């Protein structure tokens, strides 16, 4: 259920049309930059500001254009997604689809040693990602391997186990980037917890990371107003009592009040519309 398009996550949060355009564009430009200096983009913001919706929208966008290698959406409330136990094997499964040259090597390793799936995450990375890519390079060209999708999204890192587990995930992913003979890039979305911030702002991640903070500079209140107006218009068009609500419902003053109460949190606006 950790994949962006898994049935367990059906109807996941997504960016409403014409909202978060500046943030989405900045991420797209970073992913598509051919010679970027950073291999990690840390998308961070407080609870409810729309990190998962942005990650989902980006995942769907790059999947459509065959540029998405893998995704993992952590969730402390979902079985199997509240810790890092299944992270590497889930990423490996998807990498075998997006980079078929490594599939036979991964299968061979698991056939010879099924217990590899119960090793530490670091050892799983070495056995199931690093080594298969190195072996594939002996029979396929670097250009061919590099032409496959190499963009991975990890959402909700702050919902993965405890502080140490979250830092371990970052350490392991940084080792993937350093040891892989081809480029791999990661979008990591999380709350700006102190230990996560410290990990991104110290060696080795500091020099490998660009940060994107979901703050007021991206005008969330304007996007929330667009979202609310569109949703209320949909209610007027489709609700059984929509005809009696009137063209001026809701009043702009009510919209303004809701936007102020949201304080930049899309989850507030979404909850208002839901109930």
Structural class: alpha/beta
Total strand segments: 5
Side by side, the strands of the main sheet go 2-3-4-1-5
- Biggest sheet overview: 5 strands, parallel
Q: What share of the residues does DSSP label as strand, in percent? A: 5-15%
Give the end-to-end Cα distance, rounded to a whole number of Å.
27 Å
Q: How would you describe what is shown here?
A:
- With 275 residues, this protein is α/β, with parallel strands linked by helices.
- Helix content is 49%, strand content 10%.
- It contains eleven helices and five strands, in the order αβαβααααβαβαβααα.
- A five-stranded parallel beta sheet has the order 2-3-4-1-5.
- Strand 3, helix 7 and strand 4 form a beta-alpha-beta unit.
- Helix 5 packs parallel to helix 7, helix 7 packs parallel to helix 8 and helix 9 crosses helix 10.
- The longest helix has 19 residues.
- It starts with 20 loop residues before the first helix and ends with a helix.
Task: Summarize the helices and strands and which ones pair or pack.
Elements: H1 21-32, E1 40-44, H2 51-64, E2 68-73, H3 87-98, H4 103-112, H5 121-139, H6 142-146, E3 151-155, H7 163-179, E4 185-190, H8 194-200, E5 209-213, H9 220-238, H10 252-262, H11 266-274
Parallel strand pairs: 1-4, 1-5, 2-3, 3-4
